[in-house]
Amino acid sequence: MTMEAFGEEFGEESSRWDLPEGLSDGTEPGWLSDGELAETRGRVPMLYVEALPVRVEPDGRVASVGLLLRGSSTTSLITRSLVSGRVLHGERIRDALMRHLEKDLGPTAFPVLPQSIVPAAVAEYFPWPDRLHDPRQHAVAMAFVVPVSGECQPRQDALEISWLTPQEAAADGIAADMEGGRGALLRQLLHHAGAL
Amino acid sequence: MTMEAFGEEFGEESSRWDLPEGLSDGTEPGWLSDGELAETRGRVPMLYVEALPVRVEPDGRVASVGLLLRGSSTTSLITRSLVSGRVLHGERIRDALMRHLEKDLGPTAFPVLPQSIVPAAVAEYFPWPDRLHDPRQHAVAMAFVVPVSGECQPRQDALEISWLTPQEAAADGIAADMEGGRGALLRQLLHHAGAL
Amino acid sequence: MTMEAFGEEFGEESSRWDLPEGLSDGTEPGWLSDGELAETRGRVPMLYVEALPVRVEPDGRVASVGLLLRGSSTTSLITRSLVSGRVLHGERIRDALMRHLEKDLGPTAFPVLPQSIVPAAVAEYFPWPDRLHDPRQHAVAMAFVVPVSGECQPRQDALEISWLTPQEAAADGIAADMEGGRGALLRQLLHHAGAL
Amino acid sequence: MTMEAFGEEFGEESSRWDLPEGLSDGTEPGWLSDGELAETRGRVPMLYVEALPVRVEPDGRVASVGLLLRGSSTTSLITRSLVSGRVLHGERIRDALMRHLEKDLGPTAFPVLPQSIVPAAVAEYFPWPDRLHDPRQHAVAMAFVVPVSGECQPRQDALEISWLTPQEAAADGIAADMEGGRGALLRQLLHHAGAL
Lengths: 196, 196, 196, 196
Description:
The structure is a homotetramer of 196-residue chains. With 196 residues, chain A is α+β, with helices and mostly antiparallel strands. Chain A has a single domain (47-192), classed as Nucleoside Triphosphate Pyrophosphohydrolase, CATH 3.90.79.10. Helix content of chain A is 23%, strand content 26%. The first copy, chain A, contains 6 helices and 7 strands. Chain A has helices spanning 15-18, 34-41, 93-105, 166-169, 172-177, 182-192; strands spanning 46-56, 62-71, 78-81, 83-86, 121-125, 139-147, 158-164. In chain A, 49% of the residues are buried. Chains in contact: A-B, A-C, A-D, B-C, B-D, C-D.
């Protein structure tokens, strides 16, 4: 996978569609201009949340796993990803998680957020080659497994959501398709949930 | 609190009402006669599950905590407790958890079971005085925080369920009322859920 | 793998060598005769602890993973396993963990026990075919990752300990060699430790 | 507690003493000028690590808890705190944890870092009054319980380390003395470690 394949999409917000209604880009607290964002990314690790949407049986067992298919704006490649996005200044982790779940899965997914904000896994992305990689920045993501009970309707740049069994999702072919090395993170989350 | 105050109630099943319908006591796998149960309790640690029922906000935060009020059959004392009960031979932990939640909270509580069976806390009860105490046995309980979305209607020996804020539930007076030293376990579960 | 291949070895204590010095078999609390043990196994789930010994870097990262090679007493097969054994009546989980680590790794392994007894994984073994399998019993094991800083000298039925990188240990060939389906548990523990 | 009481000390690095040897302030990657730091704090949540140093028994149980006493540079108040500090750009979480443990406890503390970087607790500090508070910034701290086996010799602004039993550390008087509301975090960490 080349850097271009997932350079633009790694959970970053596009101000065109992600802003709360009625707010202009310039005045929204927490939102940064492109220049400010680039500058900040060179200074500190950026805090992200990521979520693996799952469907569960009545007894809590994970029945299936939702992976997002995203197209790259610079290449023709399609990659698989998790729900992910940045935590804004002043934003609580659970609010960021809820916001990105709604952004990526639509308003009728009905995610069931965890009681605790201690994540299932912590993912460290570096701008240089490493276990996990993000060409744009040093990002630290707190990753959660989130059951959804409703209908998922991916929006915007998330082309589609595909549902796989945990075993299918953990297969080598799927892992290799995931952007930034997230195959390892996906397996870690599946094991955390006792789904493998 | 005297030992008699909670001797009979610690999550033990009464064969009168807890058996799946249509099965006679003598043939149910996993169920033991009083003599067999007493003998087994002298030989090995007994495996239990416990659950703290909670109501959560849409963002996952714990809003309130359900504590069971149980009356003792040998004394007039009322004590507070968690949902709890034994894991039967051949029974999965999540099935035991579901069975005891339904037994103690009724069929319309709609508990949301955890994906993982790694517990929020592990509680060790000894028949001699210790941090946690059960006069009948050495019991090891895997304890979970379980959101409920429906109506809780305690059955049988569970007289009532009272809902408290996490702060109220963690107060010293409540902790002292809990059977077997479970006040410490309750606080541990509340901290695990980030509710304090 | 046939059932015979791991029937006798699954972490069970042999009274010949496992008893604390100076105590005779008949009087040791918690120890059961063969008949009592067989009877009890038919009545309740048996509580076990399991441990994956690891060597760690100064920064905490898992450098290598110790797997036990055990020979079967009834077949010529060699299987790989974890440190494991039963929790006795009246015994604390951390005492059981310490006892079995010393039994399987010798007195100079210097294991570093976890602060919390909440396990890294919970393993359910059933006497019928399932994800994890133990032909003798329904066993529930609380599994931990335990760093060791000293010299491991396996004793008795544990023929040898072999040290692998986390990646080697997670490979399909190793997983298939592990008794009772513990390949899945091993990977779960490695992911819990962030070692993959 | 007033804001001034802990305004300067919250785990922030002083460039005078915290820089790796042989590196000048201006060229050290990850280090920011005062102006850059102030600007960045207004844009994004700042990532921190925190650690509760503990002494453990051979069986892993927490025997005592180390709290730092820090003096304020603007007031005469002394407050209690945890080991804490910022994660720099490009720095791994475990490297940041190691660096701040050495900074606050000295070079002979011999901390035993966790295998996993999933924290024991996640602490969200806001610049406005909240459960946890930091007047300078929105900070998100990943908090760990870290056993130390050596001699702790606090350096620089950390005046002293005092060792308390877990019960003493959890007492109301101690909690009220902790900066930024960390009394709640301290109890959460003690419960995570099963020390209460």
